[in-house]
Amino acid sequence: MATDTYDQFREDMLGRANVADTPELVDFYHDLESQHAGALWTVANKIEPWEPESDSVPVLWEYDRLRDHVLRALKLVSPEQAGRRVVYLANPGRTDVTAAVGWLYTGLQVMGPGEVASSHRHSASALRFIMEGSGAFTNVDGHKMTLGRNDFVLTPNGTWHEHGVAEDGSVCIWQDGLDIPLMNALEANFYEVHPDLQQAVSFPIDDSTSTWGSPGLKPAGETWSKRYSPLLKYEWEPTYEALCRLEKVSDGSPYDGIHMDYVNPFTGGPPMSTMGASMQLLRPGEHTKAHREVGSFVYQCAKGHGHSIIGGKRFDWKEKDIFVVPSWMWHEHVNGSGSEDACLFSFHDLPTMRALGLYRVEGLAENDGYQPLAS
Ligand code: GTQ
């Protein structure tokens, strides 16, 4: 070993486990195993990495390739049989759990005109981002909402929820995002089917958006004490308009362009306690700088086209494509158009990271802030 390398090795291993096997040690390890025990130094460097090491890999799912498979499910199973008729997205780095990235799940749910999926509730928090079709609805604790393209909807944990499509609607597909893997990792996941299978509509249609969805306004004296947002549906048009207005007066973030969080209008904080969501606008030709965050991200392109460089690899996206960024992985985004803006919807587990005091973010210092592309 050259001296430099040896010195570097010594420095890297200082204070770290560095024990070579001997016949006595190997015997010792076997004996410990028989006692359902082990020597920490054999696993320490793996279980206590210098920094987060995700088993998840960056992946992009092209909607054009998935869509036909999703539509096939429509003919193969009914919502009654399936409970939820969903094609989930599986991260190839994760064979242990049904996860898209980190401790987040995502899937594409499909329903036809006149179909209804039964009402249930669970410890997992859920959200939806509507992709195509007309007439879709969700009922959350009696608040029935009509859903349109690029609308963002909450079904917070513990709330009864069911989905369906109106008789005069068309086949609808939306993206589900849930923290199912997190709930299972925490061994905290309960699940219940509604005793009547369907719940009543107890409030005027879209009342949550009409009550809480006007920018900067709320009904006088109205209060709210639940742990999630009273606004359950965030419509696309006002979201896009908010981004366009911000763009006129702000340079935005060097890492994320014009970037806005969906918030609980009562607190200004995240809409649910474990998961948050954002919409970002990349200006024509914009290429953001690379940064990395403690937290996992699932993106969907809501408008335009472009690419992202994630962990040194390029992923090209266009409308409705979905891709993921694992925790602590460098990522930067590029709008592929020189004349049109591009929008990326994303959901993430930053509220969990922040609540636990784990959130960190770092910008790439080298190479003017841009990742070298892996060959
Ligand atoms: O609609 O409640 O994709 O419970 C996975 C689990 C959707 C839902 C999914 C679920 C749901």
From TrEMBL:
Keywords: Dioxygenase, Oxidoreductase. The keyword Cell inner membrane does not apply. Residues 108-171, 280-343 form the Cupin type-2 domain. The keyword Oxidoreductase applies. It comes from the Bacteria. One of its GO terms (molecular function) is dioxygenase activity. InterPro entries: Cupin_2, GDO-like, RmlC-like_jellyroll, RmlC_Cupin_sf. PANTHER family: 1,2-DIOXYGENASE PROTEIN-RELATED, CUPIN. This is Cupin domain-containing protein. It comes from Aurantiacibacter xanthus.
